[in-house]
Protein 1
Amino acid sequence: MIQPQSIGVVEPRRLRFTDPLRLRGGGVLPEYELVFETYGELNASRSNAVLVCHALSGSHHLAGHHAGEPDNVGWWDNLIGPGKPLDTRKFFVIGVNNLGGCHGTTGPGSINPATGKRWGADFPFVTVEDWVTAQARLADQLGIERFAAVIGGSLGGMQALGWTLQYPARVANAVVIAAAPRLSAENIAFNEVARQAILTDPEFHGGNFYEHGVVPARGLKLARMLGHITYLSDDSLAEKFGRALRHGKAVYSYEVEFEVESYLRYQGDKFAGFFDANTYLLTTKALDYFDPAFEHGGNLPAALARSSADFLVVSFTTDWRFPPARSREIVYALLHNQRNVSYAEIPSAAGHDSFLLDDPHYHAVLRSYFERVEI
Amino acid sequence: MGYRYDFEVITEWISPGEKVLDLACGDGSLLRHLNDVRQVRGYGVEKDPEKLVSCIANGINVLQFDLEKGLAGFEDGFFDHVLMSLSLQAIHNTQGILAEMLRVGREVVISFPNFGYWRHRQSILNGRMPVSESLPHQWFNTPNVRFFTIADFDALCEQNGIAVRERLAFDEGKRVTEEPNFLASVAVYRLGRAR
């Protein structure tokens, strides 16, 4: 649905990079393409660029819609547009699909130039740091030396944090939403179950399912169903579905009875219909590996000493995937380093997914912050 | 928001470039002022969503924490000054927050409305709860949960081993030196850990 104040029709762009990218996990991408979208105009001094980093299932398509596809609205359209909190009349906003993705950027479903076949299981492991490096190369190509802000939610927030450590001089403001400085054992455990669902699907074929003309839809569906539960909250599930029964009473069957089952199956099927299983595996591993404090003996304040950006950190009260306490770890580590940091803990019933919604307080905080960002 | 004379006294006690924590910082105008005239490294704590947004608009660092839960994440002695302007009476855990402020700050500055002010006493004598410039709310909608006088606060400091380094009292923006517990509507304290 096209919203008021939408940016309107947008068109993805594509850039090819032929400088080999040496990856943190040891692999090398000899060449690659990044697909991205931009909104608003880069000003003459190139000082108004904002990079938006996407999470697990996001993409470069942040706002507006593609020509002839009025229903294909960008995933952060409620935030980005003329007159919206991230105002495209002031900022030049960039969304880029990350390496290993499945929305057009080089990923496991792309052709490996060395073999002429799809990368599949051979696609190298990619990390948050590698994504940041690739995003920086894109910024170079677009003539952007320094971002007015880098913003992201969840895994996107980790990239925003990563930017301030890898390229401290190139980020004026970092907006880190519903994120964590590293995953907990419980977070990794959920990711592992999701991966096992995919890896053990007979149609996965060790990651080379493309050659067999199949997709591991069952595994992907299970992974998504599990993930989806962790993005919501007990409250929001109770409010949306409660114990509502499709037949009004128990019929003692394994078919859909409770409405919540119907919802999860629908979400799982929808996701399995377009998302790449290898991308899902790679992305959950990138989440697991992210841990800037690791090289500092687990000392987060020491790790964040490199950052020089101003920060806005945001969390949501019912987010149990990345609870407020995880965001506060980031805040206290920044405080230790006497960085400029503001922190909002938004009361919201919607769990981790809150960062995608347009809660008035949440958006008022973002609007106020972006209004004060100097360009 | 706030009383300018309270701001001016507090500003006098802050040196340029200090690390300052302002608890229940409201719309951030005190920190904004301290940023402007003392170039402090300032952080505010504010729970109220609308005030938080005002703080961000004011260009100060603001953290949405609940003071009733203490200051557990802050490091010992990190701040040169920890401030609380006209808010102590709205916090349940009075002794806890005072101890926490003294833990994370080298020095604490606190101002509060004096419940023992003569107009308040007169109001009670007349059988009604006081409503004044320093206690502007009605009994049924006040955010205040602790009602105390200058003498009460002095006694608490004595009892808890808190050093009162300086105490200034005011009425209608003017210093009160005689009988402050009777004649002053607001008091401003500079506190430290006893040795």
Note: Chain A has a mean pLDDT of 97.
Protein 2
Amino acid sequence: MNVVALLAADPLLDGELRWTPLLIVVLKVLVIFVLGLVGTMFMVWFERKVVAGMQNRIGPNKAGPFGILQTLADGTKLFFKEIMNPARSDPWVFRLAPFLAFVPAFLVWSVIPLGGDFTEGRDGTVTWFGQVTRVQLADPPVGILLVLAMSSIAVYGIMLAGWASGSKYPLLGSVRASAQMISYEAALGLSLAAVLLSAGTLSTAGIVAGQNSLSNWNLVATGFVPFFVFLVAVTAELNRPPFDLVEAEQELVGGFHTEYSGIPFALFYLAEFMNTITMSAIVVTLFLGGPQPITIGETTLSIGFIPGALEGTLWFVLKLLAFLYAFVWFRATLPRLRYDQLMDLGWKFMIPISLGWFLLLAAIRTGDANQWNPVVVVVSSLVLLGLGYLLFVAALRVSARNREREGAMF
Amino acid sequence: MTVTVAAVLAADGINIAKNVGFGIIAFGMVFAALCVVSTRNIVHAALWLVVVLGGVAAQYILAGAEFVAVSQVLVYIGAVMVLFLFGIMLTRAKIGSDEGMFNDGWALGIPVAALLFGLLGWVIIDYAGDDVIANQTPTPTVMLSDAYLGPFLIPFLALTFVLLAAAIGAIVIARKD
């Protein structure tokens, strides 16, 4: 019972283990698996098509209507390619790495709320085959931490792929990748902490349930800054442009997956695009109310003719598409950062600003709870943060001067 | 026969599934731990250590301590071991077996391990004896945070100084002068 109880903030799994709930869980797994793969295929096509549009090209247009089956064709081709093991590679780790990248990407799907009935103030549960459940695979109390854990396991896939290939470019690419992912995980976690402070729960369903109107969306409730920090950190975490030094073609051939071919390569490729989708979904869940409809004051923007349970999914997909488009847009328009710019942005800008903002939010909340004068709280916090910032700048100056004295070039 | 044994155990309030699960995971962990010290490739040793730490996380989940389990994955697998591997890759990213992987004093490890095993075994037997440990239900994260930000705040803060000391130590080592 214990492991089951663990997954059961979902009302579906309360009580004894019976056939119907079990089959519903199996069905959910199947649907998420299929939708995950089909969604990833769509994302690959979407990215190629939109980038092509932005660059005044046509993009894929041969396979299927609008070239939508192009990914399927590419995938089929990769299935028939020979899987190469470079002579100087480490055979076991070389084979293991693609799975370490792919499996965590899939597992993140399990905690994302994909829909639900939020019409007329309902709490997002739906009734399937006489069972009350949520439209998400699992709702563990640790919820969002699972996403962080998965993204930290995904680092292994990239790191080991680079090392096990036994050649220079992949190793350089993977060292870059892991340094980048470790650096930005801190900013990611700190801006996430701001959301958790306002939501008061780790469970993804709980975070969504709290955002029942536009002013309660964490985007507004945490004051926009964590959202932008999170978005930038996620882009870096995904190794997507403008943070794609990991696979900078001009410098590193293909980066960590240079030596891969056939299906192992396809797994890396799929994992990359699947991570884009899941991370966009996480942004939507954390900051934009997930499957909640847009409610301003008393009025809800409702899509009338669609049954309530489907409406949540529709809102979720709409919000998700906005972010997927934004990621493609970043890729098509922003030039790649230099390595020192990347590290400076992560360590000297994003981490201090998200930490400072988190402390400010905490101070405001404490002030609210004790009914202190909000103006005094905010002003004194800002003065304190300002002092901290000056100290920080002074430290940077001193270290820069020391390095100059030692005659370093940068 | 097996059915009756299971029935007797279940009547005593022993969770059979949990014990079997513990056994399987523990076996895997012991095997992986032996591989950590016996493999001749340093990256493989680090990866086997990841397996051991993952096993610990699995045991935590089995015990109903899911927050601790996820923290284990985040901190040990996600941060500590990644830094290990990172360090290895930056210094000696060799594929294949290394020479001189074994310390000359490796035999000293055996009595230390035996001593530690005896100590831990004694602590556990002293704590529980023949009692059946009650089935743990998962602890809500809220209760955990209330505990360590409330009555246990001072020990919690004291622990952070350990990290601070480590950070200062790292800076001192990394300084060029």
Note: DSSP finds 14 helices and four strands in chain A.
Protein 3
Amino acid sequence: MLDKAKAEEIFQKIKKFASVPEVETIFASTDFSLTRFANNTIHQNVSELNEQASIRVAFDGKTARATTNRFDDESLKRSVQAAESMARVQEPDPDRLAMAKPDAAAGAAGPPRWFEQTAAITPGDRADAVGKIVAVAKKNSLVTAGIYSSAQHQEGIFNSNGLSTWHRQTSAEVSITMLADDSSGWQKANDPDVKHLQPVELAEIAAKKAGDSQKPQELAPGKYTVILEPAAVLDAVGFMFMDFGGLAILDQRSFLNNRIGTKLFGENITIVDDVDHPLQANSPFDGEGVRRKRVSLVENGVIRNLVYSRGTAEKMKNSEYAGKVGDISVTGHGFPLPNEIGEAPMNIVFITSGGEQTVDQMIASTERGVLVTRLWYIREVDPYEKILTGMTRDGTFLVENGKVKCGIRNFRFNQSLIEMLSHVEAMGKPVRASGEEAFDMVAPAMKVSGFNFTEVTKF
Amino acid sequence: MSMKQIADWALNTATQRGASYADIRIVDDRQRSLATKNGKVGHAASGESLGAGIRVLVNDSWGFAATDDLSRDAVERTAAKAVDIARASAQVKEAPVRLAPEPAVKIEWATPCKVDPFSTSVEQNLDLLISIDNELLQVKGVTLAESNLQFGRSEQWFYSSEGSDIHQTRYLTGAGFAAISFAGTEIQKRSYPNSFGGQYQCKGYELIDELKLVENARRIGEQAVALHKAEKCPQGRLDLVLDSSQLGLQIHESIGHPIELDRVLGMEANFAGTSFLTLEKLRTLRYGSDIVNVVADATEHHGPGLGTFAYDDEGVAAQCTPIISNGLFTGYISSRETAETIGEHRSNGCMRAEGWNRIPLIRMTNISILPGEKPLTFDQLIAGTDNGIFMQTNRSWSIDDKRYNFQFGCEIGWEIKGGKLGRMLKNPSYSGITTEFWNSMDSICSRDEWTLWGTPNCGKGQPMQTMGTGHGASPARFKNVKIGTAYQGN
């Protein structure tokens, strides 16, 4: 794999090939493998080695990027020239900043995210784990489908101002669906350190969900108290965080337009972006190499702050919104330049302040409600009221008189996130959670009143 | 070094190590992506990626490994790795993989392309986008104007241990723009010629001229602003007329995905989902009304769709498969493996991979509804509608994991009263159950109103692969559809 020393060497060549004063290169190197199973069989099993250099040039308020996975001199020269020629024909943008200086990357080392035992996972190790998952399925007369993946990833940013960053991490992930004739159950987890993954335990939980939801009953659509497991919470709330970027406000495309500083959610909702949280697992710098900072986004229901790239922070300070949007500072959340979307918080952590309940406790306190394992195919219906639609999937249950009564057919919801986060009656302990619609986060299970199910499907 | 030589290194290594079948795809991808926002450059980027993916069958199980290093040592090492991975796969299997037969071929093919998009200058491209933005910003109330251009060129060499040698080059061109208007407590948006980036086809820069982007910018901007004052779409059951782009997405979600045979056979159960189209429904299910005729057509004859090619990514020739014939469900889309599993004599050629580093999966090609045989213009369709709603341009889309229950929102709607388009409606949406919906179709416009739309962003697989699919459609009418569900209870 590409390491920092080799990347530095390539960057020196790139600088030499450039005819403009400012050059930046983002390096990425991936060794990724994934074992996929269905019908109790490994049916796809893949591995990939890929390395790339994404070169940005800047001069006279102009900038452009060219990316290649070939590091020979001719390919690097061609990419540098492609970036330069795309930049040269642009009109100068007076708002375009010079590239970041080295001190922008400075910060604490952050928690380790590279683990030798994860890097050492073999196809045989993954097959062994899948074999154990299949054994759980067979023991329960079920059929299973899912994945077991492992990866090593290295990335870094160098620029002609002397900025230099490097990050490496490993990752292992398991996702399991257990299928019966008319029901299913699901679990998913990932972690930089494979020792925290428990595939058999996850398989047992998924199998229990599939078993408990057999012969699903049809419930009339309507507003219900719901208990959302952490994966369901993160897949829903994930749809609002792109709106917490400063540029989204300047572009007036955010549901937070005219709402920063107001109490939008319930008192019990506090959210930060914190890449250094021990349960987070991402790179500590942004697309310009700026060290990510912890940002308080929501405090007790009040929208407090946005995140900023370097360029957006400057624009915001000079805009009509300055003074109305909380603290304006470079937070290290920018996407690689040039881009038109600015920045977003991608390391979300929900903060609870005592009184957390387990899902079982939430069930026990519910007279009538719906327990949701996961949500699926979520899309935004209304961008300002933040109404989302989507389906429940792989384990949806009726709760009555404090107990799970039976599985039910899956619902379609049309639910405002603002309303949802204003009606959270109880929360669990935030955990590292992973879904399919949004990025991973540290999120709790939630009990929410008045959740709006509008239709029911056929299974 | 020739591509054939690289392929020989891979295929020889794989077979010498025990592979009963092996193939290699060497892919050289090139892209240009330009976007503007409010008349300034949003992003300007180009990319190139070269590599090889090697797929092998060992002990009746699959293995795949990919590398960006095409040196002999790396290619042979990658082929050996694919074999090792396949051996690991064989530890957990219920049934052996068998492939439907396919004759070996040697062929060269390229997308018909009048103007190579990469031959146009970036300056010319940016000038066009900035002109569109400036037109949009002329409209008072447009708070954000965004335009984009995308070009792609993918050259692929496919070789198999069965002797196939297929060299294909596919071009992609796409463009579009959006006007966004924020006022009060509402964000409204209008896109042209379609949402999510516009229109995409496998052809050259000639597409851009055909789209008449600048000419339509002012009208679209005005609609975005006018939506704030429009009435809300009503809730209830009404007749529904869909424009061809929305009908294209309706086909994608409620026909294209459920006919994927890997979904039907449970191979996507953990992520994309399964399908309500279980095997006993083939040639027995009344999918739609008598006028519903849908094909999966990857042939050049169908048009320059994102699903047009000569051979799929496991070396099977492009074909036209009847999917729904006069309302009857008549076909799945398949691979060599899944065709063999259900006893078909041949794959219908729908295996496609995102790039060199991904395995081919069953993907939609061009899944299109055929136009009505009797001449019917859009105006005539509206004139024949007494009480209904016309909806244009997708805004949101969602469907369950077996593809029964769907809900779509559109950017704009229009009331239809007494055969005429009336007042504008905002936030229109509709929902239903797939087969009930297609059985309610009672009218479809003829060939002159038919457009082959491109959906560039279809996601499937683990690891996720993004694929472009084509969907031809004419405006059509559906009876007694549930309208307005998206805002019900909100």
Note: The mean pLDDT of chain A is 97.
